[in-house]
Structures are given as structure tokens and as C-alpha cells.
Amino acid sequence: MTAPTVVVLAAGQGTRMRSEVPKVLHDLCGRPMGLWPVVAALEAGAGRVVVVDSPARPLAEVLPEGVELVVQPVSNGTGGAVLAAAEALDPAAPVVVLSGDVPLVSAAAIAELVAAHVAGGAAATMATTVLEDPAGYGRVVRDERGAVARVVETKQAGDATPEELALREVNTGIYAFDGAALLEVLPRLSADNAQGELYLPQALDLLRADGAVIAAHAVDDPRLVLGVNDRWALAQVRALAQRAILERHARAGVTVVDPAATWVDVDVRVGVDARLEPGTSLRGATEVGAGAVVGPHTTALDSSIGERAVVRVSWLDHAVVGAGASVGPFAYLRPGAVLGEGSKVGTFVEVKNSDLGAGVKIPHLSYIGDADVGERSNLGAGTITANYDGHSKHRTTIGRRVRGGVDTAFVAPVVVGDDAYTAAGSVITEDVPPGALGVARARQVNREGYAQRRGDARARAQSEVRDGNVSDGKAPDTQAQVSQVAADNQGDVHARGAEAGQTHDAPPRGTRPRAPAPVAPLTHADDPQKSH
Questions:
Q1: pTM of the entire structure?
Q2: Of 117, 217, 249, 364, which one is the catalytic site residue?
Q3: In whole angstroms, how large is the CA radius of gyration of the chain?
Q4: Per DSSP, what are the bridge partners of residue 347?
Q5: Residues paired with 139 in a beta bridge
Q6: pLDDT tens by residue, 121-163
Q7: Which residues pair with 27 in a beta bridge?
Q8: Cβ–Cβ < 8 Å for 50, 5
């Protein structure tokens, strides 16, 4: 048997979707709805797949390689859509007609329809199914031989008898045709109806009038042939598609803790023994390695999560997490974030466009952007890479086995050598040589009696106000006293700068101020080896 040609009708306007987005482009578990029957046709072994699109060609940019696109120039019905594809049809091959808004039809269902059509020797075979509630569908009336005698439409009152209304077998709108027979009747379709359109079911009437046999093939699972006319129907179909996706993964060795609270797109790949906790959403082309744990409450978009990695309560967007790495809770991995094997990105850590080597640890409260961090480095809480100077982005390079103190800011571009340290609270603006300790902060100075002087000045100010000795809302003596306290404070600042060997003159334009040299022994708070 010649491989069938599959025609997917996708030119409908979809006005009941109430959307500016073309109906066939509405998302269904990570794939445009109109592509679902296309993919099923390819999986079923179709010789050619032809998509009939509208003049706007919404599907042109998303069709898989090898799929042909034809345009239905005028919206004139399903018959007009197949007629637009006539030049792509092979008279020697069966022709299967699918609808872009019947997305759940499977490759197996298509193959079974073609096999039944060929075995029956019919000119056309209609896919039917049995519904518990067939209201609104055309009823299939069979003759004594089991062939389709006619399809009774029920949309208008009086069109069907009570006996016909009691039938539950309905027309799904999916057909298989003999290629030559279809090409012969297509030009004979008539638009003599209230809508002035060409309808494909009329081809069945013409073939039957010519003495050809019209067969019916029952689809056992009615969910495979559900159509989408509006957003509520799309939501119902999405629920069915999602359940089928999760079932496929579960039967392949993936633990899905709560299917009702887990969302996985159709093209996501998940390894054996992976565990998906409730609240997990895996979208796009995300991959999860064997034995990984994802969730609870984690979203991964087009990201890769390595084997045995653990990602909890986090958001990943085009990120890569290495094998055995740990992420979260409350981490944000932005595009370009690459975490090496066994690395850790902890609570309230954001990573963007950065490469973290194997074993790197950034436990909490940090932002790492546009940086390269060498293996087994440990950056303390509050670490920031200042990667933007107001005009351009710059990279920070941190070597291997670096120990960063808490509240360290690396002002890019800056390079920190292997085995280097930074003291807590430092703003690193210059390169730190390998094995060195970078300290970039003012020395602490304690001014005795400051609180008492401040309190005395405030009390005198309140007393002046109560006595009525005010000028512009403030007593003259109080103004002087408060000014003296302010001068003391300013003196404290200058004293600290002098003791640290600093000056307060502005550096020349275009240069960077150098960090002050430490003048006092490091205290316990300075200890960069303190656990973070």
C-alpha cells in the first residue's frame, strides 16, 4: 500500500475563541493546537503531510521540516479547503483528512483508520465514535450491510426522527478517501446552501450517488476525536492531554506525586526514577535527568536539570543545572545560568548569564550576573556582582576555591585569583591576586558618649520650644547645639578616613578609587573562613 497523504484543515477563523490569536496557534501543553494532528500524522508514517492554512499563514513559521503548506485563498468551507490542496494529492494513495481543531487524534488512530479503509475497499471511510451525549453532532445511519447510509444533522428542529435522535454514533469529521475518487468529486462540490460554502461531507453523497461504498470506522476512545470550538473546550482537551502526558511518563518510570497538581508539556523529557513533586511545571523543551527531584512548586522553562539534581521552590528560565546540583528554595536561574556538577545555589539567590563550576556554593541572599566562578568556590551571603556601569555590562571572573566573605560586592570588570579570600563587607574594585586576601572597607571607629550628646541636644531643643524661645520653628541655641553634634559626626567620619589613610578628594574623572589599606588586625568578624 502506498503511504497515505494526510491533509490537515487549519484555515478556520475560530471566531468563538474570542481571541486575536489564530485558533490553531492557541497553546496546548507546549505545542500549538494545530500542530498536534500534524505530529500525529508524521508518527503514523504519512507519505506526505499537507496543511491547509489561511492567507495570514499563522502556521508557516512553526511547521516541522518536510510538511507542505497550501493556502485556502477564500474561506469557503471544508470542501474548499481540500480543493485548495488538490494539486498535492496523489490519486494512487489514500487521502486522510484531519482537522486542526481536533488535536488529540493519535498516530495509532490514524493508522487504524487507513487500515480499515484499505481493507474495506470503500471509496470513503468516515471515522465515527459513540458518545454518551451526542447532542449537536450528526448521527450516523447505517444500512443493513453496515455501510453508512447517511448522516443526519440535528442542528435544526425536525431534521431527525425520534429514532434517529436516539442514535449515539456520530460523525467525527475525520475521513479516509480513495485518492482518485476524491479528486474526481471535488470539482463537483456545490455551494448551493445557506452559507454559500463547499462542504466536504457532500463528497460522500456524490460518491454514494455514483454507486460507491461509504464505510464507517468506529474510534473506541471518543476523547481522541473531541473538537475545540471555544476556550472552555480547549481547557477540557488540555486536561485530557495533560493526563495522557503524565501517564506516559509514569509508565516509563517517573514518579508523579500528584497528577492533579503537576504540569508537563508534551515535548519535555524526564529520566527514569525522577520525582515530580506537587506544584511542578515543566515547560517547553525542558529535560530532567534520571533520579532528579523537581519541586514542590518549581517551574522550569526550556531548561536542563541533570541526574540526581534537586530543585525546590524555584524558577528556571533557559538554565542548565548539573548532575547532583542543589537549587533553592526560592532561587531564580535566569537565561544563561549554568551550574556545574554538585554545585549549590540556595535561598534567595539569583543567577544570570553566569557559569558556576563544579562544587561552587552560593548558599543565600546573593546576585551573580555575568560572572565565571571557578570550581569549589564558596561565596558568602549578600554577595553581589555589580555587572553594569550604566552603559555596558562587564564580567566578573572568580577563580577556583575562592572564599568570599559576607556582603562582598565585586565591581566588574574584576578578576579574583585562585584560592583568594575577601573580607566581609568589602567592595572589590581591583583584581585580587591568587591566594591573597582582599579587604576594601573603612576601619571602624567608636565615638564614646555620642548617644548622650545627641540626647542632651534633643532635650534642650524641646525645652526651648516649650519656653517659646523659637525662631523659624527651632531655638537658636538648639540649632547651634545640633550643628555641633553634626560636626562631631562629620569629624568621626574624617577621623575614620584619616586613621585608614584615606582622603576624601574626588578621584580624577575616568579612574576608579582604590580600596584603603587595612591598618588594624583582623577581628573574628573579618574571618573569611567563617562558615556561610
A1: 0.82
A2: 364
A3: 36
A4: 364
A5: 152, 170
A6: 999 999 999 988 887 778 888 888 878 888 887 665 456 788 8
A7: 32
A8: yes
